[in-house]
């Protein structure tokens, strides 16, 4: 099926069978799962065998759709979902995505203790000094040459 | 005796109204306390103390003696009955205050109040009074050997191994206790007691040096010793967007 109108659609990610979504809240927050079936307007059946999410009904509002998509039939068994996700290497492409990396960085930043924050401050300051020095010498050179 | 059908359930229990099912006397019989009661020793006959004593008085034609009370009656009676003072349970003497689990010897702490607020200090030990003994060390941040209540510090997750640091036993609560200025009366008027500026004694300086030497050695042994020294010299500040309830210390 060629959805030619899809090119003009403002939406790019859809709640569809096989769409990989990230769970926003709850004990499985941050993990990815694939949508296996749609229950009603508010809930979907999800399954995330590669990330340890059990097959369950989940509210759509608590899902964050990703650009990843896998192909399997609706209501496919967990075994089938796992096979498809592993062959498409979904977990790896998710983990290497900027989104997942930013999430990991944020959680790392939140877990820093006071000494870590001190070391970070000192490291940032040292780096900024190097950058500023290089920038200013370059500026001075260009100014002398009359270029700025 | 028949099989106990009520095994596991308590003999006495409170009813919904809040009252116990069985009274004290009922429980006395149920538990057969009379079997475990010690025989009361017969009351010793107490010596009868004289209330009045005959005393001789001088003067003429007055009978020569008077009956005087051995114990005089009280001259004044309070208008209000004083509430009975509870026996002072000297809990402090039996054990010092319970410390937060995050506070252990060698932990780096942030001082929250007092002259040294914001400074990172090292907790050495807990004294008998329950207060913590801390030191800057002095050369790093100017905080001396000092007592502080655990309520006025935040313990961080950073620790220094101070097991090799031997704090002299002379450093106890009496050592740190504040010396009260004497109110000397001069010519009937209280002397002009200007607040004496605190000057550390030679003993304090000596102890400070000794303890700090050991603590600095312990810090140097830490894998991040050089940075740790800079950290202890630094002051804690909250930046914009930093909220203590969201931070890990």
Topology:
The complex is a heterodimer of chains A (148) and B (249).
Chain A (H helix, E strand, L loop, with lengths): L18 E5 L8 E7 L4 E6 L4 E7 L3 E7 L8 H11 L1 H6 L2 H13 L3 H31 L4
Chain B lengths: L23 H7 L21 E5 L8 E5 L21 H4 L12 E5 L8 E7 L5 E4 L2 H4 L4 E3 L4 E7 L13 H4 L8 E2 L2 E2 L11 H20 L3 H9 L16
Antiparallel strand pairs in B: 1-2, 3-4, 3-7, 4-5, 5-6, 8-9
Can you characterise this structure?
The complex is a heterodimer of chains A (148) and B (249). A 5-stranded antiparallel β-sheet of chain A has the order 4-3-2-1-5. By secondary structure, chain A is of the alpha+beta class. Chain A is elongated and about 70 Å long. Chain A has 4 helices and 5 strands. Chain B is of the alpha+beta class. In chain B, 19% of the residues lie in helices and 16% in strands. In chain B, the strands form 3 sheets. A 5-stranded antiparallel β-sheet of chain B has the order 6-5-4-3-7. A two-stranded antiparallel ribbon of chain B has the order 1-2. A two-stranded antiparallel sheet of chain B has the order 8-9. In chain B, β8 (185-186) and β9 (189-190) form a beta hairpin. The longest helix of chain B is centred in the C-terminal third of the chain and has 20 residues, at 202-221. The radius of gyration of chain B is 33 Å and the shape is flat. Chain B starts with 23 loop residues before the first helix and ends in a 16-residue tail after the last helix. Chain A binds chain B through residues 110-115, 118-119, 122, and chain B through 108, 110, 120, 156-158, 224, 227-228, 230-231, 234, 236, 246-249.
Which descriptors would you attach to this protein?
heterodimer, A: 148 residues, alpha+beta, five-stranded antiparallel beta sheet, 41% helix, B: 249 residues, two-stranded antiparallel sheet, 9 strands, 19% helix
């Amino acid at each position: 099926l060629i959805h030619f109108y899809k090119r003009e659609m403002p939406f790019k990610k859809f709640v569809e069978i096989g769409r990989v979504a990230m769970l926003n809240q709850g004990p499985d927050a941050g993990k990815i799962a694939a949508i296996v079936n749609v229950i009603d307007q508010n809930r979907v059946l999800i399954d995330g065998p590669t990330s340890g999410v059990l097959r369950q009904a989940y509210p759509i509002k608590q899902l964050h759709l990703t650009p990843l998509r896998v192909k399997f039939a609706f209501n496919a068994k967990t075994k089938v979902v796992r096979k498809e996700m592993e062959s498409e290497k979904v977990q790896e492409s998710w983990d290497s995505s900027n989104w997942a990396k930013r999430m990991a960085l944020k959680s790392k930043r939140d877990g820093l203790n006071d000494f870590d924050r001190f070391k970070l401050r000192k490291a940032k300051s040292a780096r900024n000094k190097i950058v500023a020095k290089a920038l200013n010498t370059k500026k001075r050179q260009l100014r002398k040459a009359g270029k700025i | 005796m028949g099989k106990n059908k009520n095994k596991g359930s308590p003999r006495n229990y409170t009813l919904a109204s809040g009252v116990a099912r069985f009274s004290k006397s009922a429980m006395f019989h149920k538990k057969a306390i009379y079997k475990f009661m010690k025989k009361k020793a017969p009351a010793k006959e107490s010596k009868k103390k004289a209330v009045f004593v005959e005393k001789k008085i001088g003067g003429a034609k007055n009978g020569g003696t008077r009956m005087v009370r051995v114990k005089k009656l009280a001259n004044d009676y309070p208008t209000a009955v004083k509430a009975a003072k509870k026996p002072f349970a000297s809990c402090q003497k039996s054990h010092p205050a319970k410390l937060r689990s995050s506070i252990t010897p060698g932990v780096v702490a942030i001082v929250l109040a007092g002259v040294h607020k914001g400074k990172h200090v090292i907790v050495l030990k807990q004294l008998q009074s329950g207060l913590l003994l801390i030191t800057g060390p002095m050369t790093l941040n100017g905080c001396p050997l000092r007592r502080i209540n655990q309520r006025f510090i935040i313990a961080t997750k950073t620790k220094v191994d101070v097991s090799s640091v031997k704090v002299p036993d002379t450093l106890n609560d009496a050592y740190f206790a504040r010396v009260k200025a004497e109110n000397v009366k001069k010519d009937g008027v209280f002397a002009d007691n200007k607040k004496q500026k605190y000057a550390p004694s030679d003993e304090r300086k000596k102890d400070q040096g000794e303890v700090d030497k050991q603590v600095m050695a312990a810090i140097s042994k830490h894998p991040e010793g050089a940075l740790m020294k800079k950290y202890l010299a630094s002051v804690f500040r909250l930046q914009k967007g930093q909220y203590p309830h969201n931070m890990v210390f």
